[in-house]
Design brief:
Elements (H helix, E strand, L loop, with lengths): L6 H4 L34 E4 L12 H13 L4 E4 L11 H15 L4 E5 L5 H14 L3 E5 L8 H14 L4 E5 L1 H4 L5 H7 L5 E6 L4 H10 L3 E4 L5 H6 L4 E4 L6 H12 L3 H19 L5 H11 L16 H17 L2
Parallel strand pairs: 1-2, 1-8, 2-3, 3-4, 4-5, 5-6, 6-7, 7-8
Amino acid sequence: MELHSGAAETTSMTVPRTVPPTTATDAALPAAPHATRSLPAFGRALCAMITPFTEAGALDVGGAQRLAERLVAEGCDGLVLSGTTGESPTTTDAEKAALVRAVREAVGDRASIVAGVGTADTRHTVELALAAEKAGADGLLVVAPYYSRPPQDAVEAHFLEIADASGLPLVLYDIPGRTGTRIEPETVIRLAEHPRIVAVKDCAYDLLGTQKVLARTELAYYAGCDEYVLALYAVGAAGYISTVANVAPRQFRSILDTFDGGDTAGAARGQRQVLPLVESMMSAGLPGAVTAKALLGRLGLPAGPVRAPLRPADRETADGLLATYEELAATVS
């Protein structure tokens, strides 16, 4: 099934295009979720991909394609483009569409593509949604409207207007620490009645609220905070949308596969093993886009600079990130 070939297909989508092949070290692990867990719309293991730039600061289309191919080969079911990690506030509408087209060309049907289109302006968000659909995206990541801090009825109306405008399924992006506006659990439950609102990227740090929604809807929940991957998966989440997966896609995929294989202790061990890298990248006072690009650059992978107002990581920070990554790589061979 071609997930990007029309509204009639995307609204009934229940499985990813394919499950990427496992690496040699993962060969003994199951390629699909446990029999009691259905495959979510966009897959389980999704990376919130950076947007590579050239040294001159332009969109690096070739670099984006090379990075996307690596991520899929290393176990990512899907790629989320132009999200927070993708520096969406500082990329143009044309660059966002070009990025979707380039990554679609690179990965074909081997992975789903979810395009970040959320803005503070409902009209602009609709425009970006239609452009992403035309460019070949499979779904839309839509953040709660930020800065203006609308009440919940306005938040709900915002998402419904976007869902009605496009034929693509929506992932609600709940990250009140950045937007200043929560998508309250009761609002999410009402929004779940719309046939094209199918998933949530959960960065709300509200385990009780998440479980309330899981109990009352069929929404696919994705952990958007890397330290919560296993905790949310264990209570019924679909998987993750990870920033740290830019540099450690196989290690994060292994947590889910190990859990689905029945080795819960092994999955917990895998989650603990990635935590030092998660802490270094996500809790060091720098945005994930900065730390991910710094580490990717040290690894010789496409990244490039960040765009202002973000500033690059200093040498000491980049050295520390590399040391933490190498320690994880040596532990999880």
